[in-house]
């Protein structure tokens, strides 16, 4: 049986569909190669001395795990010298990382969360890497890229994806022509396509939310969740199931494969306060979910239309099943006008 590797898929996208510029192809291959190395490090666990925390905090004031830093370095090292990037940004770095002058520069900007779901690392649950690719604005030709150049809304993304390090290591990717899944064949060392043109199942009664944050939710989110917890006896007229992995990559992947809705809403008590980051968590996941036939909102407007005002900007996230996402938005509107 002839298998479609990531390399072959990308070359065919470049050649046949004419949608993928060569530089972008190389960039995605490089990110995928770094994810292979991260997968290897994750799987070594205590034997590779990669578990546990460091004394340092990242820009978000979170204690960094050893693997956060290792994965960040791996992604920076892999992507610095290829010539396709102008700069990078990461959850783990306060400011942008310019490509050093000793290397050629390209026209793309890469953003990533090197290890998403860090709290899962030490207990052997799934974690992942999320990435988003933007084009540097024309205006920065001939000068150094600045943080402002990164502040583009999610619709400007030219590619997005995630790697998930779970029972299998997977790479899920879109370059704007559907969503494709690749499984890491560890013996051969290549990413092999295992799902194509993925469309998330609709109409599935499953939600993912951290219930312990209920005190922070808006009346609309409370109503949405409470009605579903009531199940068949409540206004929904059917029972719902709940899952929470505490790793956005794992929760979004489940939704992509099995349907349902994922929520990490704004903290209603503090305007603008939220947990997840727009540029390298919410936007790439929204790009994938929309490509797979789902929807993504901050609770009010489509997530990819949220104006970017800061590299580490936080945003409410509600994504997945189209009708369920629409229900959350509708409840919000109803309660605003009530
Ligand atoms: P991280 O990037 O620092 O790991 O944080 C993001 C993670 C998401 O993967 C996940 O959905 C959420 O934080 C879990 O939050 P909680 O600890 O409230 O369950
Ligand atoms: Mg994260």
Give a short account of the largest sheet. 8 strands, mixed
Strand order of the largest sheet: 4-3-5-6-7-8-9-10
Strand content: 15-25%
The low-confidence parts are none
**Number of continuous helical runs:** 8
How far apart the termini lie comes to 60 Å
Principal-axis shape: globular
Number of strands: 17
Oligomer: single chain
Structural class: alpha+beta
In this entry the ligands are: 2,5-anhydro-1,6-di-O-phosphono-D-mannitol, magnesium ion
List the helices and strands in order. HHEEHEEEEHEEEEEHEHEEHEEEH
How much helix, percentage-wise, in residues? 25-40%
* Structural Rg: 20 Å
**What average pLDDT do the residues reach?**
94
Description:
This protein is of the alpha+beta class and 338 residues long. It has helices at residues 6-17, 22-44, 66-80, 147-150, 219-230, 248-258, 278-291, 322-337, and strands spanning 53-57, 63-65, 85-90, 97-98, 108-116, 127-135, 159-165, 169-174, 180-185, 190-195, 206-208, 241-242, 261-264, 276-277, 295-297, 314-315, 317-320. The chain has an eight-stranded mixed sheet, sandwiched between helices. Strands 12-11-13-17-15 form a five-stranded mixed sheet, sandwiched between helices. The longest helix has 23 residues, at 22-44. The termini are far apart. Bound molecules: 2,5-anhydro-1,6-di-O-phosphono-D-mannitol (AHM) and magnesium ion.
């Amino acid at each position: 049986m002839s298998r479609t590797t990531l390399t072959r898929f990308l070359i065919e996208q470049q050649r046949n569909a004419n949608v993928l510029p060569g530089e972008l192809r190389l960039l995605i291959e490089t990110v995928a190669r770094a994810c292979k190395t991260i997968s290897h490090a994750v799987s070594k666990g205590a034997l590779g001395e990669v578990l546990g925390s460091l004394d340092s905090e990242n820009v978000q004031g979170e204690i960094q795990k050893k693997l956060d830093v290792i994965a960040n370095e791996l992604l920076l090292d892999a992507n610095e010298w290829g010539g396709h990037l102008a700069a990078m940004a990461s959850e783990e770095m306060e400011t942008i990382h310019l490509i050093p002058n000793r290397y050629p520069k390209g026209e793309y900007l890469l953003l990533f969360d090197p290890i998403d779901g860090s709290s899962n690392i030490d207990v052997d649950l799934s974690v992942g890497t999320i990435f988003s690719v933007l084009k540097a604005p024309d205006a920065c030709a001939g000068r150094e890229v600045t943080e402002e150049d990164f502040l583009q809304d999610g619709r400007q993304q030219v590619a997005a994806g995630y790697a998930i390090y779970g029972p299998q290591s997977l790479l899920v990717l879109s370059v704007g022509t559907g969503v494709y899944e690749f499984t890491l064949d560890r013996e051969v060392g290549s990413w092999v396509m295992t799902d194509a043109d993925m469309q998330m199942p609709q109409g599935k009664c499953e939600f993912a939310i951290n219930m312990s944050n209920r005190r922070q939710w808006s009346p609309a989110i409370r109503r949405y969740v409470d009605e579903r917890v009531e199940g068949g006896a409540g206004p929904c007229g059917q029972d719902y199931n709940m899952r929470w992995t505490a790793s956005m990559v794992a929760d979004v992947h489940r939704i992509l494969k099995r349907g349902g809705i994922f929520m990490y809403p704004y903290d209603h008590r503090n305007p603008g306060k939220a947990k997840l980051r727009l540029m390298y968590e919410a936007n790439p996941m929204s790009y994938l979910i929309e490509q797979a036939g789902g929807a993504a909102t901050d609770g009010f407007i489509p997530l990819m239309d949220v104006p970017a005002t800061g590299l580490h900007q936080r945003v409410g996230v509600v994504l997945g099943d189209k009708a369920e996402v629409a229900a959350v938005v509708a409840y919000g509107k109803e309660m605003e006008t009530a």
